[in-house]
Amino acid sequence: MNEGFDTLTPEESAALRGAATWYANYHAREVASEAGDATALAVEDRRRFLALVSALEKLGVRFPLPDALAQRERQAA
User: Fold this and answer.
1) For residues 26, 29, 35 and 39, what is the CA-based torsion angle, rounded to 10 degrees?
2) Of 66, 75, 18, 74, which is closest to residue 45 (Cα–Cα)?
3) Residues 67, 35: contact at Cβ < 8 Å?
4) For the chain, how many helices (H) and strands (E)?
5) What stretches of the chain adopt beta strand conformation (E)?
6) For 2-55, how does the pLDDT look when each residue is reduced to its tens digit (9 = 90+)?
7) Are 18 and 50 spatial neighbours (Cβ–Cβ below 8 Å)?
8) Burial environment of residue 5 by CB neighbours within 10 A (0 to 12, 13 to 18, 19 or more)
9) pTM
């Protein structure tokens, strides 16, 4: 049952954006605190978090990265 985002009503789309934004806000501090952690779990957490932030931006939600992650992303580029 993978109908895609284009089948969402405006209310469903807004709810999804709101839930994803809440989740990103909730986990931002934890992910940022592990910005220098090179363990596989921390790296995977960052990858998933950054994918969420990227998806939010595509949905029209600007989500600023925590300073520690933004700095890490600039160094990686």
Assistant:
1) -60
2) 66
3) no
4) 3, 0
5) none
6) 567 788 899 999 999 999 999 999 999 899 888 889 999 999 999 999 999 999
7) no
8) exposed
9) 0.77
CB atoms within 10 A of CB 66: 16
How far lies 15's CA from each of 22, 45, 58, 73, 74, in Å?
A: 10, 24, 15, 29, 31
As a dihedral over the C-alpha atoms of residue 39, residue 43, residue 48, residue 54, rounded to 10 degrees, the angle is 160
| Domain locations along the chain | 9-76
Q: What whole-number distance in Å separates Cα of residue 30 and Cα of residue 17?
A: 21
Exposure string for 7-45, b = 16+ CB within 10 A, e = fewer: eeeeeeeeeeeeebbeebeeebeebbebbeeeeeeeeeb
The owner of tokens 């895609």 is 4
